[in-house]
Design brief:
The complex is a heterodimer. Helices cover about 80% and strands about 0% of the residues of chain A. Chain A is mainly alpha-helical. The longest helix of chain A has about 45 residues. Chain A starts with a helix and ends with a helix. Chain B folds into two domains: about 170 residues, Maf protein (Alpha-Beta Complex); about 100 residues, no CATH class. Helix content of chain B is about 60%, strand content about 15%. The N and C termini of chain B lie far apart (about 55 Å). The chains are: A mainly alpha, B alpha/beta.
Chain lengths: ~180, ~375
Amino acid sequence: MNLLTLFLLFVKYGFLSFGGGYVLVPMLMADLVEQRHLMAGEEFARLLAVAQITPGPIGINTATYIGFRHCGIMGGLVGTAGLLVPALVLVVAAMYFLRKYENTLWLRGALQGLRPAAFGLVVSAAWIFLVLAATSGTWGTADFSIRLLPGIMAVAVLILQLRTKIPFLWLMVICGILGAFFCR
Amino acid sequence: MLILASASPRRRELLTRCGITFRVHAVETEELKNGASPFVLLAENAGRKANAAAKDYPLDTVIGADTGIVFEGQLIGKPIDSEDAKRILRMLSGRTHEVCTAVALRGAVQDDFSVSTKVTFKELSDETIQSYLDAVPVLDKAGAYALQDHGEMIIASVEGDADNVVGLPCRELLKHLHQEHACRTLFWEFAKITTMVIGGGYVILAAIEAEFVQRRKWMNSTEFLDLTATAQTVPGVIACNGAIYLGYWMRGWRGALAALAGTALPPAVVIMLIASGVAQLPQEAPWVQGMFMGVNGCVAGLIAATAWRMGKKVLKGIFPLLIALAAFTGMVYFRWNPGFLMLGAVPCGIIYAVWQMRHQVKKGEKL
């Protein structure tokens, strides 16, 4: 695979990754592993393991990994850029339309629906992270348990964020260190 | 240090509320009153104030501002006496006028811009005018009124930045002040956020809110709502969509690219190091697992804080509550694609808006 094919492939994924980077994973699995046979299933599994525990959005991690594996450093960069080009165009186009039609009934209506939906999804993200950090096992089964400390940290961070001006990166470092020592 | 070249206590108050530290240094200058179009006059006067102060503080950034009321192409000044004040208020009654503030930045940052806000007055009876003049001393105020002093008595609607009517277009001013380092800041802030956070998307949206809305005040909370709505509706990695939106908002294409590079480069480098075998993953060590748990707990709190502040803006009435509940259930319980959930909200919103309008029209007919 040369750089141009790689780039175009990820431009396509960029347009199709509707709903965020997580959507990319099953799509790539179906396309790259099962259809095109560009990657072995085992390697894809390793990629997922890496993408999930390294910093950064999963979509980026996946694109870089695949690009790097096929075309080296340039491949990693080109794959990532390909994934982002559609978003760059589409987000700016969306901003343009938001500004241009802000006083029309249909756009105001659409925003009336979109804003609370966006809020609902942010709430669910908070919930998902809380479950991830503060529980283990599946709800309703015998191995379900609650981990107290991450839950307390979540509440403490919430209060500190609402009441004080401490930069959140500090809070993250502190929670990470506390976690490394006490959440075992 | 920022220098405010204005003696106005209202401007001082507005700037303090923006969370900026500054010093006041107002120099008496001769103000132009006529001879050009109102907008040119305001810009000229703002420039004069800033230039005069900039002579004393050449290394700092000086803010000069001049606010005026423009009605039918004329600049409305301060009233001469109470009869004149009555005349001005009667003239503006039931009509729309523009409040324009010209801002001149001199010194370290050099820029000129102006912001206009449309203000519509209620139909004012003579009694209302009298009771307003009794309640508020207006002789030192252009247009014989002040939004912040019992403005509700006389003003029907304000279209645009209300701070601008009080004397300083804070939002626009902050954008211009931060412009100098905006691209660099965008790159480094996003690089920091993305490196610290494992598993992108919503964490970065929350981080944008905490850092750029709450702390730096580059955006207000309604604008942030549109950012989250757009980032989740448009195809692409949610974190990157948010970065593009904020970057473009601040600095156009350059800003978008700077923010995007900050978000994408650090993880790309890390991944390449791992994929090439240079760096190893210490994934099984218990302390690493514990660190993730701690960070995840912190992230949950961080997102919850953002959600809390969004909720205060969004949840007005039953309809938004239902939509938010539906989105939450769809995501957490059914695990539907967030993009489709967002799209589904669009027709709901439009139908609701049309229904709302019809309803209001009917109510109007009954009255």
